[in-house]
Amino acid sequence: SLAIEEQYYLLFPLLAFLIYKYLKKYFTFFIILITFSSLCLNILSSSELKFYQLQFRVWELFLGVLVMILSSNIQIRHLEKIGLPLMMVPIFYFDDTWIYDSEPKLMSLLGISLIIFSNTNSSTLSKILNTNILRFIGLSSYSIYLLHQPIFAFYRVLTRHLKFSLYDNSYSKDQAIDILNLETGKYINPNILILVIFSVVLIGYLSYKNIELKLDNIGYI
After folding, report:
1. Where are the alpha helices (DSSP H) in 45-123?
2. What is the C-alpha to C-alpha distance for residues 89 and 37, in angstroms, rounded to an integer?
3. How far apart are CA 147 and CA 154, in angstroms?
4. Phi/psi class of residue 164: alpha, beta or left (left: φ > 0; alpha: ψ in -120 to 50)?
5. How far is CA 96 from the centre of its chain?
């Protein structure tokens, strides 16, 4: 996903500059056309490459551009009440077998788009999101995102090289969570899972406070 995002960050400014310079009044039309074309490519393709290549996934990023354009010209309140369930349902309904399919992405992205498009500072959702614990997680979220993979990988290495195991064979697949996608068929003890998640959040917060904020203060980000 980071590779796709970086390609977008490099190519989109150039595309936007050219359209604005020569076809400014058609800017929204081109964004809609590219978004729709990319979505169609994604839906019609059965290849696993559509998960990894920009042309199949640029619609996900351009959807944000459309939200920006529409929200600056149209205001419709309370759409976040539809968007929040749309965003949450894929978390509980879809599993990893859907990773190459468009449905979970389309549903979740439409949900978050409606939230961004319609939500205001005075809405109930904003008040909930501004609670201390969610603000804490939100501020730390980028560091958590960057660090969760190496932390989980470190725990996976521990189980292979240390004499004790973080995994409990007494747990069945229905009783525990295979959060590390192990090939051994062992499932993580839910208590250990809580410890790992707590570690990820704590280290993410420390990274935010001691690295992100300091870099921001000296102008690097």
Report:
1. 54-71, 80-93, 103-118
2. 26
3. 11
4. beta
5. 15
Helix or strand (DSSP H, E) at 33: helix 27-44
DSSP letter for 41, please. H
- Tens-of-pLDDT digits for all 221 residues of the chain? 788 989 999 999 999 999 989 999 999 999 999 999 999 999 999 888 898 999 999 999 999 999 999 988 888 888 988 999 999 999 899 988 888 899 999 999 999 999 999 888 888 888 888 899 999 999 999 999 989 988 888 877 776 665 445 555 554 444 444 444 444 445 556 777 788 889 999 999 999 999 988 887 776 55
Q: How many CB atoms are closer than 10 A to CB 144? A: 21
Q: Is 75 in contact with 117 (CB distance < 8 Å)?
A: no
